[in-house]
Specification:
By secondary structure, the protein is an alpha/beta fold. The chain contains 21 helices and 21 strands.
Length: about 575
């Protein structure tokens, strides 16, 4: 059966020189008319279409686009990392040092990978081997390309771990990946990518999973190493704030096509393509509608503590505690959003789950029940808590992991109704349709499964599942961190509209201060289980009192500043 091409993006693929207005002088690598497809059941689906792009020597090129635009597929083609099949290179060439990478034999490709072109992947935990220590993994990269072993390899590994700023590098040589923090793992990945001093570094969303302060450190590190080595960088991201700080030039990608290329400042100042203008306008902004001063308290906590016992010895005696939440007091009014901000490990999520009685805690959790009685949730047993669950809902960070792949959207959204209410099938269906319409989802898709929806649509499904029970308070645990900026803006606008319509109270947990600022009336900054600073959102951003708060705000990637 002949292969049928499908899935081409609409619109012309623009010539790079026309878009940049400038002839590249000294090219390191040149992509010409590259088209890539995936073969499935004798059908070709084109995901990259006629892409032409150059990277100059010593240049940082930012490749920007939303999920599914073809950024990573294009980047991985520079090293031929994708399996062939199902990947089919339909046309084009990738010229490096006079040779077409797409036609190189396997031995030459092995030499190229990691030696001349290296890559930092998005998630360092899945990129590192969980069974091997750090020294072994970096030594392997040294041995494969230089042949060094033993003391020579160890010295090189240690030198690079120090260069990327890993604390106590010599003591960490025998550490396994899970024993390092996210920022430390990413530093190890950078060391592994650069240990053979490549000509080109591909950084594929290298800071997406990191806190804002760690993100700033990693970005500065990449910039410094790029200058030290004089190498080129292809920096892939969906965050225009980061690319504005990092890149000399920017290429915008949509539906497998390059739609605009230009020098960074010129493109940000005068974007030509409608899609570029859309991306630039997608930064979360604005502020929530003010809450009346006399709005009643929806939830409060006094001296809340969550301590995890540390045990040792045969008898497992407690010798210390991890104080994840250490004496926190807070209040949230009806219709108000309280933003909880802090780095990983600060206790944000632990606090949120303790407030919902999902984990044990000590202290008072005050809640005004449906009958207007004031209750201390920590004094209620499981049976007494159950009817209150419908009023206290949570939306999790990962919109895919929090939805059952074996249930249809209708079943997922209706699940809470079956627990808390006795309704006929017709009444349940009507409520599901209404909930889907409230979050701007097509009710006709209710019998489909989560894998048929985009990340933003899956998060809307999670919101509908919570809203169908008419809660009074929603805990939003990093609900937009896994989404593109434009989709983030849509979800934030939706949450604001729902808050106004239903007078919902939100506890908004995030490390993304740009999103928190757009959502929150008040902000509480956490560090090591304690409250560092709290106050009105605008005051926190314009007049922070504590040094830690100033440090967090200073680390926010901006489209109007540079590292």
């Amino acid at each position: 059966m002949p292969l049928t091409p499908t899935g081409h993006a609409d619109g012309p693929n623009m010539n790079e020189e026309q878009m940049s207005g400038k002839q590249m002088t000294e090219e390191l690598i040149h992509i010409q008319n590259l088209s890539i497809a995936f073969e499935q059941e004798n059908t070709l689906t084109t995901v990259v279409s006629n892409v032409s792009l150059s990277i100059g020597k010593g240049e940082i090129l930012g490749l920007v686009g939303e999920s599914g635009s073809g950024k990573s597929v294009t980047a991985q083609s520079l090293m031929r990392l994708l399996p062939e099949p199902p990947v089919v290179y339909q046309s084009g060439e990738i010229i490096y040092q006079g040779k077409d990478i797409l036609t190189l034999p396997e031995p030459e490709l092995r030499f190229l990978r990691g030696h001349k072109i290296s890559m930092i992947f998005q998630e360092p935990m899945t990129s590192l081997n969980p069974l091997h220590n750090i020294e072994k993994q970096l030594s392997e990269a040294v041995f494969l390309h230089s042949g060094d072993t033993g003391h020579a390899a160890r010295a090189k590994v240690l030198d690079w771990l120090n260069r990327v700023g890993l604390r106590d590098a010599e003591k960490r040589l025998k550490a396994l990946p899970h024993e390092l923090s996210g920022g430390e793992r990413q530093r190890v990945m950078i060391a592994m990518a650069l240990i053979n001093e490549p000509d080109l570094l591909i950084a594929d969303e290298p800071t997406t999973a990191l806190d804002v302060t760690i993100q700033a450190q990693v970005l500065r590190l990449i910039l410094q190493l790029q200058k030290d080595l004089g190498m080129s960088v292809l920096f892939i991201t969906h965050d225009l704030g980061i690319v504005h700080q990092m890149a000399d030039r920017v290429a915008i990608m949509q539906q497998g096509k390059i739609v605009e290329v230009g020098e960074t400042e010129a493109l940000f100042r005068n974007p030509e393509h409608p899609y570029t203008r859309k991306l630039l306008s997608s930064e979360p902004s604005g502020s929530p509608v003010p809450v009346p001063d006399n709005a009643p308290i929806a939830l409060e906590a006094d001296d809340l503590k969550v301590w995890f016992a540390m045990k040792k010895g045969v008898l497992k005696r407690v010798y210390d505690h991890v104080k994840a939440v250490d004496g926190i007091s807070l209040s949230i009014r009806k219709g108000e959003t309280l933003g909880i901000v802090g780095e990983s490990g600060s206790g944000k999520t632990t606090l949120a789950r303790a407030l919902l009685r999902l984990i044990p805690s000590v202290g008072r959790i005050g809640y005004v029940g449906p009958d207007m009685n004031r209750l201390d949730l920590n004094q209620l047993n499981h049976r007494q808590m159950r009817p209150l669950r419908r009023n206290l809902q949570i939306i999790f960070q990962d919109p895919y992991g929090s939805l059952s792949p074996r249930m249809s959207v209708a079943q997922i959204i209706a699940e809470g109704l079956h627990v808390h209410e006795k309704l006929s099938n017709e009444e349940v269906e009507a409520r599901v349709i209404a909930a889907m319409q409230a979050v701007q989802l097509d009710p006709e898709s209710r019998n489909r499964y989560p894998n048929a929806f985009s990340g933003g649509q899956r998060q809307r499904i999670a919101i509908a599942r919570a809203l169908i029970l008419n809660p009074s308070l929603l805990v939003l645990d990093e609900p937009t961190s896994a989404l593109d900026r434009s989709v983030q803006k849509e979800i934030i606008d939706l949450l604001k509209a729902l808050q106004q319509e239903h007078q919902l109270s939100y506890l908004f947990v995030s490390h993304d201060l740009t999103v928190v600022r757009a959502m929150s009336h008040r902000i509480m900054i956490m560090q090591a289980g304690k409250v560092v600073e709290t106050g009105q959102a605008e005051r926190i951003f314009t007049q922070p009192v504590q040094e830690y708060t100033r440090k967090l705000i200073a680390a926010i990637p901006s489209m109007h500043s540079s590292l």
